Amino acid sequence: MECVFGLVGDGFALVAADTSAVHSILVHKSNEDKVMILDSHKLLGASGEAGDRVQFTEYIQKNVHLYEFRNGIPLTTAATANFTRGELALALRKNPYSVNILLAGYDKNIGPSLYYIDYIATLHKVDKGAFGYGSYFSLSMMDRHYKSGMSLEEAIDLVDKCIIEIRSRLVVAPPNFVIKIVDKDGAREYAWRESIKDAGVSAA
Amino acid sequence: MARYDRAITVFSPDGHLFQVEYALEAVRKGNAAVGVRGTDTIVLGVEKKSTPKLQDSRSVRKIVSLDTHIALACAGLKADARVLINRARIECQSHRLTVEDPVTVEYITRYIAGLQQKYTQSGGVRPFGLSTLIVGFDPDTGVPALYQTDPSGTFSAWKANATGRNSNSMREFLEKNYKETSGQETVKLAIRALLEVVESGGKNIEIAVMTKEHGLRQLEEAEIDAIVAEIEAEKAAAEAAKKAPSRDT
Asked: Is the ipTM of this complex over 0.95?
């Protein structure tokens, strides 16, 4: 029941993801960070099989860094999206990765952008996107309330609306979410939305 | 002798690998490079041979980053350097991917030296014609390190070292004048060593400074000129002080 969704606002893009690591009926942990900071100005929110998710996103991150060291200049968001899609496509007919990705980035002179990349290597440049069962609710909420060029406050308000919808309507809804943003000042964590804190052992 | 320098894999009767020694000759003809390790700063300097007027000097970077905390300068065949640097950069990322830890300076030096050695023990290939100076801060301990490799594949750690043209004079200078320094003093020591063999002036030397907080920073020509001016002033003051007492007696 993983949920990842994102949208583009005025001079920024954000990605929100649930933070539960689940195996069958067991919740391993509820503070698993699934939105990777790819480089100074890119975010990679990923959902899917846990092993594939970490393996694939780390592989992409290291290759993005290698490009920057080799060429003295970072990859653009569009180039990164196409590279990522290419790797998924290469693996698809041999050993596919079960990972769905929302790539958000900020490029000077281009501004913020969001890319939807699914596990069979579909690539779309979008204003808003979502993966998982949560997408039924978040996409509908965003279709209703999203407008282009939203301010950060409006966007976070929309994200919170989506999270409330997911929490109240999805049968095994993830309790906690992380929200990360990327703008001209870089990629960073914005906030957590926790309804269950990983509690320590309570006193007898 | 002529028969023992063709194929690299052949030892000469008196135990020489001539191709490796000839590679060292190529290094000796390369531009001067110096590295100095301070307590919190490490400095790399290279001589910039006169740039042709129409060449874009920014495309000829002689001091490069291998990772956010490791830098390299070299003397010798620049084309060979490109290949080694590329492999080293890949290894830095590969190491981070497999063990989720940045490389230590020693690890990447060992890797580069290992690569250089491989090419002294294969058929049909020639050694890399360059010596490298590798600097960085170890990610766990934060200790600064300076290493040198050469075409034979040997490597060792140094407090300060030089390679390339006139490296012997620079090393002699460093041996006489080395002391534990930090910050700007380390930069000055490196520049003073380079100035022993290079024509004075900011446009003939390239200096990069590495600190733990800020990583690698290439100094601007104006900054280098300012420090060179300081050094010359200090030298002049020292000369004057030497002459003054003898005049009194």
From this structure: no
* CA of residue A193 relative to chain centroid, distance: 15
Q: For residue A66, which residues of chain B lie inside 8 Å, CB to CB?
A: 89-90, 93
CA B70 to chain centre: 13
Interface of A with B (CB under 8 A): 58-59, 62-63, 65-66, 69-70, 72
What pLDDT, on the 0 to 100 scale, is given for residue A202? 53
Q: How confident is the model at residue A143 (pLDDT cuts 50, 70, 90)?
A: very high
CB contact under 8 A, B92 and A69: yes
Q: At B23, give phi and psi (nearest 5°).
A: -65, -40
Nearest-angstrom CA–CA distance, B192 and B185: 10
The answer to whether residues B158 and B58 touch, using CB atoms and an 8 Å cutoff, is no
At position A203, the amino acid (one-letter code) is A
Residue-wise pLDDT tens digits, A146-183: 999 999 999 999 999 999 999 999 999 999 999 999 99
Which residues of A are less than 8 Å from B94 in CB distance? 62
Helix A77-92 and helix A50-71, axial crossing angle in degrees, nearest 10: 130
The CA distance from A104 to A77, in Å, is 7
**Structural tokens at position A6:** 């994102």
What are the tens digits of pLDDT across the range B81-133?
999 999 999 999 999 999 999 999 999 999 999 999 999 988 788 999 999 99
Interface membership of B97 toward A (CB under 8 Å): yes
Residue A114, strand partner residues: A104, A126
Name the burial class of residue A138, with classes exposed (0-12), middle (13-18) and buried (19+) by CB atoms within 10 angstroms of its CB: buried
Separation of alpha carbons A51 and A61, rounded Å: 15
Residues of A in contact with B90 (CB under 8 A): 66
B93–A65 CB contact, under 8 Å:
yes
Helix segments in B48-158, DSSP class H:
78-99, 105-118
Cα–Cα distance for residue pair B24/B151, rounded to 1 Å: 6
